[in-house]
Amino acid sequence: MQESNTRPISVADEVKNSFLDYSMSVIISRALPDVRDGLKPSQRRILFAMHELGLYPPKKQMKCAKICGDTSGNYHPHGEAVIYPTLVHMGQPWAMRETLIDPQGNFGSVEGDPPAAMRYTEARMTPLGGTLMSDMEKDTVDFVPNYDERLTEPTVFPAAFPNLLVNGGTGIAVGMATNMPPHNLGEVVDAVCAQIDDPSITNIGLNQFIKGPDFPTGCVIQGVDGIREYIETGHGSVRVRGQAEIVENNNREQIIITEIPYNVNRAELVKRIAELANEKVIAEITSVRDESDENTRVVVELKRDARAQVVLNNLYKFTALESSFSIHMLAIDGGRPRVLSIKDAIACYIEHRREVIIRRTRFLLRKAEQQAEKLEAYLLALGHLDDFIRIIRDSRNRDEARAGLKSYEFSTATAERLGILIRSQPSVQGDRYIFTDTQVDQILELRLYQLTGMERDKIKGDYDELLATITDLMDILAKEQRVLGIIKDELQAIKSKYNTPRITRIDAAGGGIETIDLIPNEPNIVTLTHFGYVKRTPTNEYRLQARGGKGLKGMEAREAASKEDKDDFVETLFSANMHDFLMFFTNTGRVYVERVYQLPEAPRTGRGRSIKNVLNLRPEEKINSVLRLEAQGVADESMWSPEKYVLFATKDGTVKKTGLDAFKNIRKDGIIAINIEEGNDLIQVILTDGQSQICLSTHEGMCVRCEETDVRSMGRASTGVRGIRVEEGDFLVSLTAVDHTKRMLVVSENGLGKRTAFEEYRLTNRGGKGVITMNVTEKTGKVVAALAVADSDQLMLMTSKGQNVRIRVSDIRETGRNAQGVKLMDLKKDEVIQDVAIVIADDEEEAEANSEGTPEITGETSAEAPAAAETDAPSSEAESGTEPESTDTES
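Structure for DNA gyrase subunit A, as requested:
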């Protein structure tokens, strides 16, 4: 009975082993590039098939169908359909930094259009692609049998330039993938030469030569952190931003996109932009069109009032115009997949080229020695011509002549006399020189014309040159530095011939798109109510009014929670741009910081949102003052200058000065800004340069003008010193920095105001009672605000019942210091002015206001009230400029 050949196996083990075999086959033989020449097997076979067809420049292109057919039939038996896309990819200038294929015909487009069929297109190698196979015929690389063992193919190319780093590569294997970026040829060559000169150079040192990826589509890399990471570790990610410019066309702005990130489909990008416009995600876009030819040109049309930079930032955020390129430098090294740093990749390439140079030198040495052996035979034959002719003539056939010549012996002295270099070879035995079989054959094939004197001199000259070449080749093999020097020289020759300037720019300070980049820096009116409701409203919701108007309806008053509660009213109102910082100072002396755009937006009649939902206020805290810091672009650090100061004023007339840089590191939960004593309140905070003059104004119409230098700088937790002495029942209402190009505007509760030159306020020491700043009567009411204004400014007045009016400062008459002023706003019964702020109008509003002239009052009441008569009746002046108390209240 025949014994069975079957045996039991574990299915789990068999599946595991089979899968591992399959995985390694995919990893090694298909998906990943070789670290030495940077090519996958399919790419290498295509180029080798073109080498066999002789498709080097300047030979004309050949049909791609023929190239793919030869590749499939001879080396890569997977069908032309899978070979052709690989061939096309190596010829696309937007996919390869340095193309290896020179295409003829439709090879696709950056928009994702497919190439024409292979029967219509033609190709040949580019000069740089051909250099990958330079010296391949000189035994520089190993050859192995092809799939059916009819032919042989190279396992790797000699690679005269570091193709892996220059062109990068992508590949997805089993359980691993590679995504290597392209680099600039000149930078890579310089880095290789630097590592040859200094093998201990670090990856950071190589970064001085290889600046980063150099994508064929150009664009800008944002930041260098990702570059440094992948150069050191082989892993990383870089942000690539397309190139776009903002131009003006027919009084409208356009965004012209001229470069798109690497591997981004231009047609899909245009489609995505159109979708964002149609879905109103970017409502400022009216149309988008692709005007590209061989160069990218995408035109994005904007609305007339659109802010182009904000739209562009939104395009960076919502489209592939800014993309992330993830880097994983995985390649086959020594038959195994390996993650490489830049230094590792260069070291592998140097070692490969070192082996190529040594093998080529040995090959050339063998050829030179063979030629030298032939020329030695000629020289010996010519030196003993009569004897050799006799031997050949007396022989009956070639074999007998061969035997006769073979037995002919010379002394080494005779050989040296003929100029033959005696080397260690089989032809030398002791002091005798004996012909080799090869030399005998060469003598028998000697032609008669070579017996002439001229030919003998030429043979001797060739022989001497050959000896010099042999000596040089042996010196190369003996000296490592000569081998490395040849590598450098050949790379520099490649660089000088084929290098192109860097295309991709690197923005070392660049970063991702932040929220602030997507927000237009437009002016807003910020309001804060008595009950702590905050909001911001675009200034264009407030139409410019004539002096004396009744105004627009502002915030809806908060309903009283009980009979004891009053209706809510606006306590603080000012103008700020969206990017500005706001420092919120509380009654307990703490400070919080937020940007204007982070405040809730609400319409003119909206209430806003509780400040406790915006800031992390403590239960007992209430906002008493707000300071605006004008943003300098997006760079926040420049604002916290130690040469600027925060000046505080409290209700009891105390002032304190602290350097602005002391508030630089504000936490979300706030920090201490000033030490507030019990029963006192913070009135106002201003920003100064430390050398200004200040005015302190009280509710009863008194004012002290003094030097800011009288107040020395203190720490954040101090209390301060006396600024003005207030009478019983009076209190401080305003702290103003003196600006002699402006005027002091004083506004009273009953809607009267006046402008006065700062020079009319006598300069005194801090701590005095001051001089009269407004003639306070029952008609005028008490002083509610005092601020510095210019003729070009506009004012926003807010009443206790939520009415507001916006007027020009130039409409307010300039009067004396103790005058009552002119009517600024009509007030209803039991209504008083609560706050006044300067409004900064944008250019479009100003142009519209100027074209309209004096606007008509609009809002809840459409009839314009007549301006009140100016009441500038003087009153007796009461000044008290006493010296300050000697004791400060500093803690």
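The longest strand covers residues 252-259.
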